[in-house]
Amino acid sequence: MLLCGCAEPEPLADPGTTADQSVDPAEDIAPARYLTHIVFAGIDGTAFFGSFMQDAQPDRLEREYRVWLGDDAGWTALLAVNDTLPIPRAAWRILPAGAMTVRVGDARQVVGLAFRTPGGRFALHAGEEVAVWTGPTGQRESVGVAAIETGDRQAGGVLYFRRAARALRYPSQAGDIRAFVLTDSVGNGLLIEQSEADGTAVARTWLHGAAAAWDAVALAPDTTAAGLRSPRWTFDIPGAGLRGTIRAVSTPTGTPVPTVRIECELTADGEVFPFVGVVAPLPLP
Asked: Which residues pair with 262 in a beta bridge?
């Protein structure tokens, strides 16, 4: 996992293969697709979106990586890679590619990504893990604090990590979501996951040092915003006493990134707090 303290998941094995066996992946691991999404919302309005897809075949690893950095100037592509590698033992791990290097912790988990760009060096550093749960394909998902480094400045924020997996002999499962990742100027966080299939939503909050999960979240397009160029949404988290309005920040026309930077006015106990972040569609493999 990207956040400190998370263990990597086991590979998808054929029936009869146990997790603790030392096996040759080329012989015993079923062809599988691993899709990892990394979404970061910085307190300064900076956004990061990474999509890392890896197809593990018996004799090779086919991968497609796409990474973007967003700020007030729009979106900048940090990485675009399509290539084939010899099959590694841990086919789910994000590997170095092109201008991207990967920093790994003591437990073999990824704790940082760094990029060389024409404008200089950029890095994403994972920090404290806030919450971990199991996603629809049995892989672990997490939300936590992180920091983004551009040039000589660094800003904190909230990071959402989602990994999904599928044995290629099986059809894809339902479970595509739209993820809203938000933070305020002091590092409080809000994650809302909305099902693309039925519109149901759940939320996770990181407020004043306490983490909590909420279901029965009401999230819908703001019908009063019809005709406006920027999409808007309203949400209500009754269990947390939170409600708010989210507004998309315009991005350049024709940008290939599927992610949109957003601003939010969150209301709690009659007070309004400004949040910034990103909304991204996250498909399953």
From this structure: 248, 277
Q: How far apart are CA 59 and CA 116, in angstroms?
A: 30
**Chain centroid offset of residue 31 CA:** 24
Is pLDDT at 20 greater than 90 in this prediction? no
Determine how many CB atoms are found less than 10 A away from the CB of residue 53. 18
Residue 152 neighbours by CB distance under 10 Å: 7
SS (HEC) of 262-282? EEEEEEECCEEEEEEEEEEEE
| Nearest-5° Cα angle at 197, 194 to 203 | 15
Position 4 scores a pLDDT of 37
Domain extent at residue 278:
25-282
In a domain, 154, yes or no: yes
Nearest Cα residue to 280 out of 164, 156, 194, 206:
194
Within-domain flag for 270: yes
Cβ neighbourhood burial of 259 (10 Å; 0-12, 13-18, 19+) = buried
Alpha-carbon span 252 to 23, nearest angstrom? 48
9 in any annotated domain: no
Tens of pLDDT, residues 47-70: 999 999 999 999 999 999 999 999
pLDDT, residue 226, reads 59
Residue 16 counted as domain residue: no
> Which residues fall within 8 angstroms of residue 263, CB to CB, at 6 or more apart?
246, 247, 249, 274, 275, 276, 277
The number of domains in the chain is 1
Confidence of residue 9 (pLDDT cuts 50, 70, 90): very low
Integer Cα distance of 131 and 101 in angstroms: 26
